[in-house]
Structure formats: structure tokens, C-alpha cells
# Entry
Amino acid sequence: MPIYNFSAGPGMLPAPVLREVQAQFLSYKESGVSIVEMSHRSKRFTELARHLEERLRRLMAIPDEYAVLWLQGGATLQFSMVPMNLKTAGRFAYLDSGVWSQKAIADARRVGTVDVIGSARGVGYSELPTWPETIQGADYLHLTLNNTIEGTRYTALPETDVPLVADVSSNILAEHIDVRRFGLLYAGAQKNIGPAGLTVVIVRRDLISERDVPSYLSYENHVDTLLNTPSTFSMYVAERVLAWIEAEGGVDEMERRNRLKSERLYRALDTSSLFRPLVTDTTSRSLTNIPFTTGNEETDEAFRLYAEARDLIELGGHRSVGGLRASLYNAMPLEGVERLVDTMHEFEQEGHHVSYKNV
Ligand code: PMP
# Structure
């Protein structure tokens, strides 16, 4: 029986891609050289990088007015690169929807003045923040479109002339995102794109300008060129993952599957007498990250171990919130979710409770 990996990231990647990468590892396209030994300026790699960008542009319908940058430093580096590069007046608006927003806010504060115009802190981040009707005078408005830890996601966006900046690390390519609504989107690759070590930034070209910051930190230095050695292996795997998504039917098909999978799990959680979802507001539930709990720490841990013994791994919640969490990225098949739901029922029926210890 296969192992189903519910990790929030690095997350599960499509098995056919991993097999292909393995088969190609020693000799990339019969070159006699591994992709990890190949110059990033070589013809082969240049071609690969072009295909990668073309595929992303097709999959997300990214217009030419946007540049696509392949960076390192994770989504975390974007917490400071965004304010450094978009700063004009030096005032930034942020919506606080959880742990990752807070980290983005903390780094932006090192660059300018942050106005937190809405926060869901008061409700423990189980809902999304609300925002004022008019938003003015900010260089940009930042939001975390899908909250990996708390399990919420925006389905409506603020109407404003201020450029929207969104962290899409955990929902890029998992659901439709209307690129034109945003000035900038960024995502760490290690969930739906490929291995860690790669970050994609999609930014409207008119927002990019020369900046007096260290060379790597300036977007301008990365537009339509490789400033330095990028994460070549991650880009290679990403190109193959994107090819897989295209072959499977694109983002529409990924979203259809992710809806099916998440609805299956939410239904089980909503009707369970033991487990409950952390996000009850059905309009803001994430399709990709579903935190849940029994309400008892020991029972949660007992279930995590029970599931692990049945090859359902990485179901522990984030260390900041505890409990349980299932991440259902593109590579997670519906069967994985069915297995999880069945296992929850079995656990419940077998009468496992607080004192459950033997797995
Ligand atoms: N933002 C979000 C929404 C995330 O889920 C994560 C990582 N899980 C990060 C930022 C941080 O990403 P990285 O580890 O690539 O810096």
C-alpha cells in the first residue's frame, strides 16, 4: 500500500515526476551529465528555464506586463524584498491572518511603517480579517492568500487602487488565481511547484525600479536574466511538475480535484463525533491545508500515531497551534483522503480515547 504524505511542506510531489527525475538523474537528456553538474548558462539549462517560465505563464495566464523571477531565500526572503522594492512613501498596509502574515509584518517594519488594517488575531485566526472600505496612501496592501497553518483562505479581495501583494506559497497552482488582480505574487516552491530552495515572484513590471539595496535583493537585477546561479535542480524538477500539471488538465483540473478532496475531508470532520475542523466558517476554508482536532492533546497525538502506523504520515499540526492538520496539495490523490477518512472512522469506532497508547 502506498504511503500518503500530508506534510504542509515540503509536500508530496507527483510520483511519475519523481520517477522521471530518478531516471534522468545521472544523465540529463542523454547528455552524460547530471542536471546538478550542468552550468546554469548552458544551452540545455537555458532552454529548461525558458520552458519552466512558459509553462507557469500558460498555467496561470500571466500577462507579458508581469515579470517572473526565480529566486532563493524562500517566501521568507520576500517578507523583506517586497517592502524594499515597492517602497515609495514608506507606508505599507497589511492584513494579519496568521503566523505567516505576522512574520511578513515584522520584516516590513524593518523597512518602513506598517499599518495593520485588519487582523483576525482576536478570533484566534479561525476566520479571516475584515478590512476598511477605503484603503489609501499605502505603497501596497499585503495579504496571505492561503494560511497554511490556520487553514483559512481569501475568496474575496479588497477593492482598492493600492497594488495587492499576496503570499501564495500554499495555494499557487492549486486553485485559480487571477494574476491581474495583483501587483505581486510570491511563493516558496516546496508545496505545489517542486523541491525547496526555489521561490517564484510574479511582479508587474511597472512596479519594479532601480533600488539602492544589495544586488541580490533588487528585483530589477533578476528581470529576464539570471543574476547568479539559481537553484538549478529545483528549477528542473519544477519544470517537470508543471509539465505534469499541464498534462493532467491544468489549474482548473487541480482546483476541481482539490475541491473534491477537501470537501470529502470537511464533510467527515463536520459530521464526526470525535474530530472537528478548526475553521468553521465554510466560505473561508482552505482547499489545501485543513487543521483539525479532537479537542484533546493526547487523543490528537494518539490519532497521529495510529494514522502513521497505517502509512498516513505527517498529520501533526504546526508547532504554533498543535492539533492535527492534513495538507492536500496537488499530488495527493483522492484515495489518500479516503484512506484518512476511513482511518478516522476506525479510530473513532475502536473507542480510542485519552489513554490510548499502544499502536
Ligand atoms: N508563507 C506561507 C504561507 C508559508 O506556508 C510558508 C512556509 N510554509 C512560508 C511563507 C515560509 O516559506 P519559506 O520556508 O519558503 O521561507
Q: What stands out?
A: The chain has eight helices and twelve strands. The helical segments are 15-24, 43-60, 74-86, 99-108, 232-248, 250-271, 297-308, 334-349. Confidence is low (pLDDT under 50) at residues 355-359. The first strand starts at residue 4 and ends at 5.
